Amino acid sequence: YLVGVGRADCTGPVAQVPLMGYAKPEQVGGGLLSRLYSRAFIVADPERSKRVVFVSADIGMVSQRLRLEVLQKLRSKYGELYGQDNVILSGTHTHSGPGGYFQYTLFWITSKGLIKPALSSIVNGIVKSIDIAHENMKRGRLFINRGTVENSQINRSPFSYLENPESERNRYSSNTDKEMVVLKMVDDDGHELGLISWFAVHPVSMNNSNHLVNSDNVGYASYLFEQEKNKGMLPGEGSFVAAFASSNLGDVSPNTRGPFCADTGEPCDNPQSSCPVGGAAMCMAKGPGNDMFESTRIIGQNLYLKAKELYEEASQEVTGPLSSAHQWVNMSDVSVELNATHTVKTCKPALGHSFAAGTIDGVGAFNFTQGSVEGDPFWDQIRDQLLGEPSNETKACHKPKPILFSTGEMTWPHPWHPDIVDVQIAAIGSLAILAVPGEFTTMSGRRLREAVKSEFDSHGTQGMNVVIAGLCNVYTHYITTYEEYQVQRYEAASTIYGPHTLSAYIQLYRGLAKAIALNATEELPRGPEPPLFNVTTLTLLPALGVENAPANKNFGDVLEEVRQEYREGEVAEVTFVGANPRNSAENATEHNFLTVEKYSNISSSWRAVLNDASWDTRFYWSKGLNRQSNVTVEWHIPAGAAPGVYRLRYFGHYKKRVFPLRTVTVPFQGSSAAFRITAP
């Protein structure tokens, strides 16, 4: 094969933009813990001029809008080389990245509309990562390996899982998929290029009280792997690319200590995930660490260590032809043949009452609880008044789900949910990557993988390694099994196309696998093209205005200075006269907000040893009165930090008025005093 890898920044605005994942409107960005990256991998078959692109981006999920804009840019750059058939875009599912990059109305509600700077930075980052991979294609080899990851996940809806047939559950040792699959890439000279790891876990070690943009546990695993391989480089630099991609993580939490009542500390692992006092809003899961930062590192480190071991020992080479199959499908109207006599249908999209309950990883609002199979007259009446009552047809189709939002019947100002959905498989020799448009639960994923594998087998393509890549191409929430659907916990209430959603996907992915096995992908009907709505930007985000520094101060001046001396384990921090970080995101795609610099006696100069992509630094922005704001830069000094003299620097942009109606954006910087780190 020819193999190329690339990585590019896709962070976007780190302030004021709602973070995407927990659907909590007040959870808006207020700074940066780690940068977000798009990681691209291209595999090409030089003989048959076939290519496959796999992108894993540190974002909540890929939206239809995002995918369509990326494909447009690729088409204008590369013609027919990269298109909807052979490009897979997957989100890692971090819940700490900026939102606002969706065109369907439902997602506007919690992310303040469509936010152009957030959308553009992700589109540009993905395209740039593909460009880098495209420009660096080398002859190379691929190796696959798989192994078990322990102590890193629990099933957050075990009562739903238990609804699956006992005979089926008995075939598996656990109610989560503990297997990690690693694809290793090296060039013909044996130089290491990168890896993709697929593993099923929610990146929700950082909870919904967090306001710092970051890539969560899987992003920390990528960071550790890339730091290890790109020795001596700043984070985000260097040629080795390590993606920790999502899989069938629908019911899988990294908060391994399980759910407890926030007020009493008693466990709340009951079918409703509810506490005696305070109900469901009090029932929250705990990670392995003392706080969310530590939990993120513990889970991320577990993933990194297992991936490293599998990478180093990978010896099974991936060979064979490349192929990709893609279709657009109207998921609100798929007929599924369950058997010779029984045909069922999918439904127009709708969300159930338990959608509003959230999960033990991020609780919902009001008094909604998981496992509601009956509506609540109070909320139903409010909904009927505000949004309209669901039709009888949709109600019947979704049974036993009590519908809270009949999104498939809500079209103002645009449709609230997609009807047209991508289904896609890319085959790289013996590896089949199933790009799925949402969050499959553990058992749903097992059924899908098994069905696709048996389809390949029955058409003479034996021994395929089938992996699920989650949150690809368009977001359609969750996909539970028919049995899990019956008890209507959060994942089932969020299975938007009704009880037969999984059966429909299995039928569709079997069709794609058959086409690949029979070399008949050209004959697959393309399906109905998805709409691209004519909204460029529509947002409730506050406008960026002119900013002020306090009297007798300039932007970048120090307000609170560092101490003169620190030891490892302590936090060096400095507060500056700051400006809205959105100015920087809207001014330059790759803006670094901070550096930690070390003084070299040999060269009598300062050298950057860390940037804002480091997990040891934190960048906080706080808005004050009179158009003023402060920025605090923290460095959490790790064990083993080299003794010596250091300083912390801050880089920003502020808006200044030059004419009555014209403003300009002005760059500035600030620096702390020098401080010493002493040996422990």
UniProtKB/TrEMBL annotation:
GO-annotated molecular function: metal ion binding; N-acylsphingosine amidohydrolase activity
Binding site for Zn(2+): H93, H202, E439, Y478
GO biological process terms held by the UniProt record: ceramide catabolic process; long-chain fatty acid biosynthetic process; sphingosine biosynthetic process
Cofactor: how bound: Binds 1 zinc ion per subunit.
Active site per database record: S253 (nucleophile)
EC number: 3.5.1.23
Organism whose genome encodes this protein: Copsychus sechellarum
Record keywords: Hydrolase, Lipid metabolism, Metal-binding, Sphingolipid metabolism, Zinc
Neutral/alkaline non-lysosomal ceramidase N-terminal domain span: 1-507
Cited Gene3D superfamilies: Neutral/alkaline non-lysosomal ceramidase, C-terminal domain
Domain Neutral/alkaline non-lysosomal ceramidase C-terminal: 510-677
Family: Belongs to the neutral ceramidase family.
Cellular component per GO, a single term: cytoplasm
Cofactor: Zn(2+)
InterPro entries given in the database record: Ceramidase_alk, NCDase_C_sf, NEUT/ALK_ceramidase_C, NEUT/ALK_ceramidase_N
Transmembrane segments: none
Protein name (record): Neutral ceramidase
Keyword Zinc belongs to the record: yes
Catalytic activities: an N-acylsphing-4-enine + H2O = sphing-4-enine + a fatty acid
